[in-house]
Amino acid sequence: MFKMLFLNLRTQAALKKNKTARASNPYKQISRIGIIFTVEDKSKHNAVKELIQQLERDGKKVQILEFLPEKKINHEFKFDFFTAKDISFWGELTASNALQFAETPFDYLFYIDKESNPLVLHLLARSKAHCRVGKFHEAESPYFEMMIEQNGTIEGLIESMYNYTSQMR
Is this model's pTM higher than 0.90 or not? Predict the structure, then answer.
């Protein structure tokens, strides 16, 4: 599929071109957190909602973007989302909400997927977030400032992300 080949080329170019200053600031000093994830099932949706509630209780402003694969249910239509249809033949992202999300200078950006998604990686490559946090995949280290080694459940990954970042001093 040419679309994915072109997307991959654009992703690599975005990684090289993105000169955002990266830093993992103390949790108590940060205010904006982004969360991006691929829609899978109701339990993942609920786990993400619990994380959002915890972050908001901590006084953080949270913005969410989800990637909605074909034939998956968008639970509650609660969050902004984009789909594979938002990628042109030339691998250009056309969803304005996804482009705006990538331009937002989050203090932390949590990528909550256990398996890599090339469309989300493209957004991470473009992201202006100061500290991008995701699951450890050696080949994806250029996309993150903090990677979590976690081979359990999605709930375990979320808990580890929260625990590590909230302890940042």
Answer: yes
